[in-house]
DNA sequence: ACGATGTATGTAAAGGTTTACATAAGGCTT
DNA sequence: AAGCCTTATGTAAACCTTTACATACATCGT
C-alpha cells in the first residue's frame, strides 16, 4: 500500500496485466480503452495508490501544470483575495500555482523567466501593469499570459479587471448627488492605465454635470498613503480648496484622511472622501471609507479561467474582461458643509 | 539566440565541443572540470541562452526545487507578509514556492499530497497547527516540513514562530501595570497550541501578580471576529464583568471592540482591550489596537531557511525557533475607569 | 623506466511518461 | 467467405538530465 517508493505506471500495468501504454490511455483518454480494461486499470491504481509523476509527464509533454503568478508585492492587501480566486480555479483544473514578486525590480522579474525556459510553468498571471522582464526578452516568445487589474503595456495580453472608468464615475456621481461641486481628484497618473481610466471617469462625471474641469484640484500621486497625505498639504497651500476628495485608490484616501485629520478636520462633516478598491482596511478606518469594490475573488477566478482557455485553445477569446465595480457606501461622504462650500 | 525551441544541454555540448556530461559537470560541479573547458562551456551557454530544464533535472534527481506552502486560508491577513519572507529566502537559494489552501477541509489538504508523490515539491511549509492530510497517510513518509506560527500536532515537525507564552505575558503585564485586576481572557482553546500557550502566559502573569484565577471571565473562542463579539454578549449575561479584555488574537479583539461599541461603551475609557498578532488592520481600527507583534517577514525567512537546511542535511538542527514577540502600544489600553473597577 | 595514483573527460543507462506506429482481432459489407 | 474497416492493445522511441563506470592521459615515487 504505502511502500517506500511511489508506484509507477509500470507497477499499475503489471497488476492490471496490461501494457503501460494502456494504463496511460486509461487515465488520459478513457474513451479509447475498453470498459473491462479500464476497470482493471482503475483497480490497480487504487491498489497501488498510483499518481502520475508530474515531472515525467511535463518533461514528455513539454509543458507543466503550473501557473506562475507575479505581483510587484505579495504583501499588498489587494493581492491575497485575488489569490484565492486564482488558486481555486487553477486547482479545479489540475493546475498548481507558483508565486513570485518583483518589488518593481526589473532584474528580479527577469529571474522568473527561467520558469518558462525550463518548462516549469505553462502560463503567467501578471499583477503589474508592465511586463516585468527586460525589453530584449519582451520580444522573445512569451508564455500565455493574462493581466489582472490593469491592462499590460505593450500588451497583446488580455486582462481581467473592473471597469475603472465606470467605477470612478459611480464615485463622482455620488459626490455630485450629495451636492459637491468642487471635487478634487487625488492620484492622477499617466503611468498606470487603471489610474488614467479612473481619471477619465472623474472627467466624464464632472462634464455630465456641467462642471468645468479645474486642474488646480487635480493632483498627481502614486497611490501610496504618503501621496495622499502630501496632496492634502499641497492643496492647503493653494488658493482653492475642494469640498470632497475623490481618490484614485483606498491607500491614497487613507492618506488624505490622515492629512485632514492632522489638521483637525472631521470627515465627513468638513470634507467628503472616496476611495477605490475596497481594501480590507477600508471598513476599519474611521470613518469607514466609502469606496468602489473590486470583486477580487471573482477577478482571480476569471483571470485564471481565461488563462486556462488560452492554454488549450491558443487564441484568447476576449482581450479584456471587465467586471462591474460596485459602489460601497460607508461613512466618509456627506453633503458639503456650509462653511466650506462657501470658499 | 532566441530560437523557437529552447536550447538543450546537447546544443551547448556541440558548440563547446565537449560531451553533455562535461556540460552538466561544468554547471553543477565546476571544480571537477578544467578551467579551459569550463570557459568554453560558459561561452556556449551564453551563446545559446541555455537554462537547464528543471523538469528533466527533477525527474532524474527525484526531487524538485519547489516548496509547497499550505495555509488554511490564503486570504488571511497574517499570511501575505509571511509569504514575502518565505519567497525571498527560497528564491535566494534557487527554490520556487507553490501555494495551496485547505479551507480547513481535510479532503482538500489530501489533494496537495500529490505534489509530493510526483516529486513536484521537495518540502512543505505548514501554516496550520494540524497536518492537513488524512490520518492513514499521516503515518506515510512525509516530506521535510516546517510549521509556521504554531507547533504541528503529532509533529516531529519543527516550527518557527513567536514565543506565545512570553507574548501573552507582555500583554497581561501591561494591563496589570495599568492597574487592571479583573482581566478577561477571550479565545481560550485547547485545539490550537498557540492559543493554549497564550493562555499559559495569561495564567502566569496573573499568578505572578497574586491574582487568583477566575474562570468566569475566561471564555472560549475560535479566533474569529464573531467569537469576540459573542464572548462580550456572554459576559454581559454573567454577574462578573472585567475591566480589561485580553484577546487571543487581533480578530477576536476586533470582535470584542465591536461588541462593546454596540453597547455604547468607549474604549479605552470604559474597557481596555489587547490583541495578538498585529494584523495590518490593527493600526486602522479605532481606537488603534494595542497588541503583540509577530515579526512576520522574519518568521517566514527563518522557516524557509530551516526547511532548506532540512532538505540538505536531512536532520533538523532545531525543533523550535521562537522569535521575540514585541508589545506594540497603541490606544486601546488605559487605567480602569472608576465606575467599572467598582463592580 | 615502470607501476601507481590522480585528474579530466566520455559513454551509456536510468528516471517515468506519452504517443506514433505496428499489430491483432472482431464485425461488417458484398 | 474474403476483404476491409474499426477498435483495442502493445512496442519502442523520445523528452532532457545526472552520474556510475570506463577510458585516457599526465604525474609522481621509486
UniProtKB/TrEMBL annotation, chains A, B:
Superkingdom as given in the UniProt entry: Bacteria
Keywords assigned by UniProt, alphabetized: DNA-binding, Repressor, Transcription, Transcription regulation
Key word Signal present: no
Keyword field contains Magnesium: no
SUPFAM superfamilies attached to this UniProt entry: lambda repressor-like DNA-binding domains (SSF47413), Periplasmic binding protein-like I (SSF53822)
Gene Ontology molecular functions: DNA-binding transcription factor activity; transcription cis-regulatory region binding
CDD domains named in the record: HTH_LacI
Residue intervals of the HTH lacI-type domain: 7-61
Classification via InterPro entries: HTH_LacI, LacI/GalR-like_sensor, Lambda_DNA-bd_dom_sf, Peripla_BP_I
Protein name, per record: LacI family repressor for deo operon, udp, cdd, tsx, nupC, and nupG
Lineage: Bacteria, Pseudomonadati, Pseudomonadota, Alphaproteobacteria, Hyphomicrobiales
